[in-house]
């Protein structure tokens, strides 16, 4: 499974670092990592860079995770970028809504690093099928 | 023990083990008047309320080191303070989902203060856990809409 580049979208620098740490521990330490603090920054970054996977928070200022998914869906070039949503909102209704909006995976905090790794692998495998 | 207290215990223990790589060693703790941080996160939606987390500076610094996989060598105070906000944020979402799985919630931004202050006596649940790294106080206001 190939992961050359990943975009981590979270307004919390702590969570950005935590996810980067999990990526490294999961064997993806060589992947090029990009960071954005909200959906607007993420969208701007994707306009200039190609990534294999986006890992995005939901609750963010300016453009939140749902708004980010909507913008991606409206963009012909970017709508195929796989997005794994990570959120502290653990309600099933939220997960269902995000998947309907185009997210390829969802994981609720708190999660064990192994669970995030497994969720990433499911998204990447689905992309490769 | 109330349903809210039981849920708080479960969520806290799960959070400690999964993302902070530690365990709750006692559910009866005491902040002991040590200087520390407080983070409050409000939520609204199917239910509304606040999750307030307080812990000594030393506990916050040690948990930040665990969370980031970096040595606890007196990292910046900002890192420890941010950690308390992050922990409160995750706890809030996780607790809301556990108490009302069919609910819909909007979770606010953590407000962090460099003070533990007095516990909120109006809280519907208040627990002081002892982690391997030190004590952690959590107060929850949980109200129906």
What would your notes on this structure say?
In chain A, 47% of the residues lie in helices and 18% in strands. With 129 residues, chain A is of the alpha/beta class. In chain A, strand 3, helix 3 and strand 4 (83-87) form a beta-alpha-beta unit. In chain A, 43% of the residues are buried. Chain A has helices at 13-28, 39-48, 65-74, 92-100, 113-128; strands at residues 5-9, 32-36, 53-56, 83-87, 105-108. Chain A starts with a strand and ends with a helix. Chain A contains five helices and five strands, in the order βαβαβαβαβα. Chain A has a five-stranded parallel sheet, with helices on both faces. Chain B is an alpha+beta fold. Helices cover 36% and strands 32% of the residues of chain B. In chain B, strands 1, 2, 3, 4, 5, 6 and 7 form a seven-stranded antiparallel sheet that branches. In chain B, helix 1 crosses helix 3 (77-99) and helix 2 (57-68) crosses helix 3 (77-99). The longest helix of chain B has 23 residues, at 77-99. Chain A binds chain B through residues 12-15, 17-18, 21, 59, 61, 87-94, 108-113, 115, and chain B through 14-15, 17-19, 64, 67-69, 79, 82-83, 85-86, 89-90, 92-94, 96-98, 100-105, 107, 109.
